[in-house]
Amino acid sequence: MARLSRSMVACLHSARLALLAILVSGGIVLQVLACALYSNWWPMLTVVMYVILPMPLLFFAGNESSSIMSGGNDGWANFTKFLTGASIVGSIAIPSILKHAGIIGWGALAMELSSFAIFGVAILWFLQMSTEEEYSAF
After folding, report:
1. How far apart are CA 134 and CA 127, in angstroms?
2. pLDDT by residue (tens digit) across 58-99?
3. d(CA 94, CA 17)
Protein backbone atom coordinates (compact mmCIF):
# COMPACT_ATOMS: atom_id res chain seq x y z
CA MET A 1 0.00 0.00 0.00
CA ALA A 2 1.33 3.41 -0.96
CA ARG A 3 2.32 5.77 1.80
CA LEU A 4 -0.26 8.54 2.25
CA SER A 5 0.70 12.17 2.60
CA ARG A 6 0.57 13.80 6.03
CA SER A 7 -2.44 15.92 5.09
CA MET A 8 -4.36 12.86 3.88
CA VAL A 9 -3.59 10.99 7.12
CA ALA A 10 -4.77 14.01 9.13
CA CYS A 11 -7.98 14.11 7.08
CA LEU A 12 -8.63 10.40 7.69
CA HIS A 13 -8.04 10.82 11.43
CA SER A 14 -10.40 13.78 11.49
CA ALA A 15 -13.05 11.69 9.74
CA ARG A 16 -12.63 8.93 12.34
CA LEU A 17 -13.06 11.46 15.14
CA ALA A 18 -16.14 12.88 13.41
CA LEU A 19 -17.66 9.39 13.15
CA LEU A 20 -16.89 8.81 16.82
CA ALA A 21 -18.66 12.06 17.69
CA ILE A 22 -21.66 11.02 15.56
CA LEU A 23 -21.82 7.70 17.42
CA VAL A 24 -21.83 9.40 20.81
CA SER A 25 -24.43 11.92 19.61
CA GLY A 26 -26.62 9.09 18.34
CA GLY A 27 -26.42 7.40 21.73
CA ILE A 28 -27.44 10.60 23.48
CA VAL A 29 -30.33 11.13 21.06
CA LEU A 30 -31.60 7.58 21.68
CA GLN A 31 -31.32 8.14 25.42
CA VAL A 32 -33.42 11.32 25.25
CA LEU A 33 -35.90 9.81 22.78
CA ALA A 34 -36.48 6.85 25.08
CA CYS A 35 -37.73 9.34 27.62
CA ALA A 36 -39.40 11.99 25.48
CA LEU A 37 -41.39 9.72 23.15
CA TYR A 38 -43.04 7.90 26.03
CA SER A 39 -43.41 10.92 28.36
CA ASN A 40 -41.57 9.07 31.08
CA TRP A 41 -38.23 10.35 32.34
CA TRP A 42 -37.34 7.39 34.56
CA PRO A 43 -34.99 5.90 31.94
CA MET A 44 -32.69 8.88 32.53
CA LEU A 45 -31.45 7.01 35.62
CA THR A 46 -29.01 5.22 33.32
CA VAL A 47 -27.28 8.55 32.68
CA VAL A 48 -25.97 8.28 36.24
CA MET A 49 -24.24 5.03 35.27
CA TYR A 50 -22.86 6.59 32.08
CA VAL A 51 -21.32 9.35 34.23
CA ILE A 52 -19.98 6.87 36.81
CA LEU A 53 -18.59 4.48 34.16
CA PRO A 54 -15.36 6.35 33.29
CA MET A 55 -14.62 7.44 36.87
CA PRO A 56 -12.75 4.29 37.99
CA LEU A 57 -10.64 4.46 34.85
CA LEU A 58 -9.82 8.11 35.44
CA PHE A 59 -8.98 7.69 39.12
CA PHE A 60 -7.32 4.28 39.37
CA ALA A 61 -6.03 3.14 35.98
CA GLY A 62 -3.25 5.72 35.71
CA ASN A 63 -2.03 7.10 32.42
CA GLU A 64 -1.86 3.73 30.64
CA SER A 65 -5.08 3.20 28.66
CA SER A 66 -4.39 -0.50 28.10
CA SER A 67 -4.22 -1.29 31.83
CA ILE A 68 -7.93 -2.12 31.93
CA MET A 69 -7.28 -4.85 29.35
CA SER A 70 -4.22 -6.30 31.07
CA GLY A 71 -4.22 -9.48 33.10
CA GLY A 72 -1.97 -8.25 35.89
CA ASN A 73 -2.52 -8.75 39.60
CA ASP A 74 -2.30 -5.11 40.62
CA GLY A 75 -4.84 -4.37 43.37
CA TRP A 76 -5.90 -0.98 42.04
CA ALA A 77 -6.27 -2.33 38.49
CA ASN A 78 -8.50 -5.13 39.79
CA PHE A 79 -10.57 -2.63 41.80
CA THR A 80 -10.92 -0.50 38.66
CA LYS A 81 -12.10 -3.50 36.66
CA PHE A 82 -14.64 -4.36 39.36
CA LEU A 83 -16.10 -0.84 39.50
CA THR A 84 -16.21 -0.60 35.71
CA GLY A 85 -17.98 -3.96 35.49
CA ALA A 86 -20.49 -2.90 38.15
CA SER A 87 -21.23 0.28 36.18
CA ILE A 88 -21.72 -1.71 32.98
CA VAL A 89 -24.09 -4.15 34.69
CA GLY A 90 -25.97 -1.21 36.20
CA SER A 91 -26.35 0.38 32.76
CA ILE A 92 -28.14 -2.74 31.55
CA ALA A 93 -29.94 -3.58 34.79
CA ILE A 94 -31.62 -0.21 35.43
CA PRO A 95 -33.75 -0.22 32.25
CA SER A 96 -34.45 -3.94 32.66
CA ILE A 97 -35.68 -3.44 36.24
CA LEU A 98 -37.78 -0.46 35.18
CA LYS A 99 -39.39 -2.59 32.46
CA HIS A 100 -39.99 -5.47 34.87
CA ALA A 101 -41.67 -3.09 37.32
CA GLY A 102 -43.92 -1.78 34.56
CA ILE A 103 -42.56 1.76 34.73
CA ILE A 104 -41.32 1.86 31.11
CA GLY A 105 -42.50 0.10 27.97
CA TRP A 106 -40.78 -2.18 25.47
CA GLY A 107 -39.95 0.71 23.13
CA ALA A 108 -38.15 2.67 25.82
CA LEU A 109 -36.27 -0.46 26.89
CA ALA A 110 -35.17 -1.13 23.30
CA MET A 111 -33.98 2.45 22.89
CA GLU A 112 -32.13 2.37 26.20
CA LEU A 113 -30.33 -0.86 25.38
CA SER A 114 -29.48 0.28 21.85
CA SER A 115 -28.13 3.52 23.32
CA PHE A 116 -25.95 1.43 25.62
CA ALA A 117 -24.72 -0.63 22.66
CA ILE A 118 -23.86 2.50 20.69
CA PHE A 119 -21.98 3.98 23.66
CA GLY A 120 -20.14 0.68 24.09
CA VAL A 121 -19.05 0.62 20.45
CA ALA A 122 -17.92 4.25 20.72
CA ILE A 123 -15.86 3.53 23.86
CA LEU A 124 -14.23 0.46 22.34
CA TRP A 125 -13.46 2.35 19.14
CA PHE A 126 -11.95 5.22 21.15
CA LEU A 127 -9.76 2.79 23.11
CA GLN A 128 -8.61 1.20 19.86
CA MET A 129 -7.86 4.59 18.31
CA SER A 130 -5.96 5.85 21.34
CA THR A 131 -3.55 2.89 21.28
CA GLU A 132 -2.49 3.39 17.66
CA GLU A 133 1.05 4.66 17.21
CA GLU A 134 0.37 6.89 14.23
CA TYR A 135 -2.62 8.50 15.88
CA SER A 136 -0.59 9.93 18.75
CA ALA A 137 1.94 11.48 16.37
CA PHE A 138 -0.11 14.67 16.01
Report:
1. 14
2. 777 555 545 556 666 677 777 888 888 888 999 999 999 999
3. 30
